[in-house]
């Protein structure tokens, strides 16, 4: 069984978030997919098989199945475009129908996905307090222009905006406590954000729920975040850029285009590079 290793949202030929990609005639059994994802060891592995004119897709982290993963979708789009040609592919997920496209760009492949619908809501004050304690932040570390929120773009995440890049750089947390909290609240990641400009953000994503301390690029959370910005009337100008993974030594670049319809899909794009197996 061949699993491709593809780094999504790379900064050209460096950085990005590695994902496993399996493409077969049929999907393996769920337990087998979970075991493969754990063996691959990346934050997610995407499994795809033909379903009519579309593709049936499921995503597994080393510890659990997740409903949607952005960087593994970008990696899958690169793999499908490489094998079947540069076009758009319809993907049938557990809970949504989305699409991904890929186009060769020199030694890399440019890929773009259309996310599931997005939504957001203010974060409960008690959960905000638990999260501040988990990460060792004080209320004064939060950026008041971006209130804490629960955000969704195919999966549930929490958004905490920090006043300074330095506060973002010192992100740390107790892994098992974080995993228990995220499991209790049904969260896939916790997104910590610092605003550089209204259209440029630095982000770190805790992913203890999936058995990984931190994700170097998180397309699903990027879609959810972009949808939240639209919900609160943020001056995004139609698109945002996210820099993630710098503090891990895996700089990743994510671009998100934001339409006008509240709750609508977000187009998330970036570069993917094939890694040695």
Summarize the structure.
This protein has 277 residues and is α+β, with helices and mostly antiparallel strands. The protein has helices at 30-40, 70-84, 125-135, 165-169, 175-185, 219-231, and strands at 4-10, 17-23, 45-51, 54-60, 65-66, 88-92, 97-105, 108-114, 119-122, 149-152, 156-162, 189-197, 200-207, 212-215, 239-244, 252-257, 267-274.
Return the CATH class of the largest domain.
Answer: Alpha Beta
Task: Report the biggest beta sheet as strand number plus sense, adding barrel if it closes.
Answer: 8 strands, mixed, barrel
Here the CATH topology of the largest domain equals Diaminopimelate Epimerase, Chain A, domain 1
Element order, helices and strands?
A: EEHEEEHEEEEHEEHHEEEHEEE
Rg = 17 Å
The best one-word shape is globular
- Distance between termini? 12 Å
Mean pLDDT: 96
Number of helices: 6
Please tell me the total number of domains: 2
Overall strand count: 17
CATH superfamily of the largest domain: Diaminopimelate Epimerase, Chain A, domain 1
Low-confidence stretches: none
> In terms of structural class, how would the helical and strand content be classed?
alpha+beta
Taken as a percent bin, the fraction of beta residues is 35-45%
Strand order of the largest sheet: 1-2-3-4-6-7-8-17
CATH architecture of the largest domain: Roll
The proportion of residues forming helix, as a percent range, comes to: 10-25%
Topology:
Elements: E1 4-10, E2 17-23, H1 30-40, E3 45-51, E4 54-60, E5 65-66, H2 70-84, E6 88-92, E7 97-105, E8 108-114, E9 119-122, H3 125-135, E10 149-152, E11 156-162, H4 165-169, H5 175-185, E12 189-197, E13 200-207, E14 212-215, H6 219-231, E15 239-244, E16 252-257, E17 267-274
Parallel strand pairs: 2-3, 4-6, 11-12, 13-15
Antiparallel strand pairs: 1-2, 1-17, 3-4, 4-5, 6-7, 7-8, 8-17, 9-10, 10-11, 12-13, 13-14, 15-16, 16-17
Helix pairs in contact: 2-6
């Amino acid at each position: 069984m061949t699993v491709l290793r593809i780094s999504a949202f790379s900064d050209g030929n460096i950085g990005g978030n590695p994902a496993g990609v399996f493409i077969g005639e049929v999907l393996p059994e769920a337990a087998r997919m979970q075991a493969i994802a754990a063996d691959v060891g990346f934050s997610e592995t995407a499994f795809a098989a033909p379903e009519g004119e579309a593709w049936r897709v499921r995503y597994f982290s080393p510890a659990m199945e997740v409903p949607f993963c952005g960087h593994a979708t970008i990696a899958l789009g690169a793999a499908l475009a490489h094998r079947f040609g540069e076009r758009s592919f319809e993907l049938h997920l557990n809970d949504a129908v989305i699409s991904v496209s890929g186009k060769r760009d020199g030694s890399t492949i440019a890929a773009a996905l259309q996310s599931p619908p997005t939504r957001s809501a203010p974060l409960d004050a008690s959960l905000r307090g638990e999260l501040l304690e988990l990460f060792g932040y004080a209320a004064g570390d939060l950026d008041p222009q971006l209130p804490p929120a629960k955000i969704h773009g195919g999966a549930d995440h929490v958004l905490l905006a920090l006043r300074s890049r330095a506060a973002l750089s010192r992100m740390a947390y107790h892994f098992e406590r974080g995993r228990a909290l995220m499991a209790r609240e049904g969260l896939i990641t916790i997104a910590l954000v610092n605003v550089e400009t209204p259209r440029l953000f630095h982000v770190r994503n805790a992913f203890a729920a999936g058995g990984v301390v931190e994700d170097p690029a998180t397309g699903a959370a990027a879609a959810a975040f972009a949808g939240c910005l639209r919900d609160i009337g943020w001056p995004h100008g139609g698109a945002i850029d996210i820099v993630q993974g710098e503090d891990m030594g895996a700089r990743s670049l994510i671009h998100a285009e934001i339409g006008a319809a509240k709750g609508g899909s977000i187009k998330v794009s970036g570069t993917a590079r094939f890694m040695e197996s």
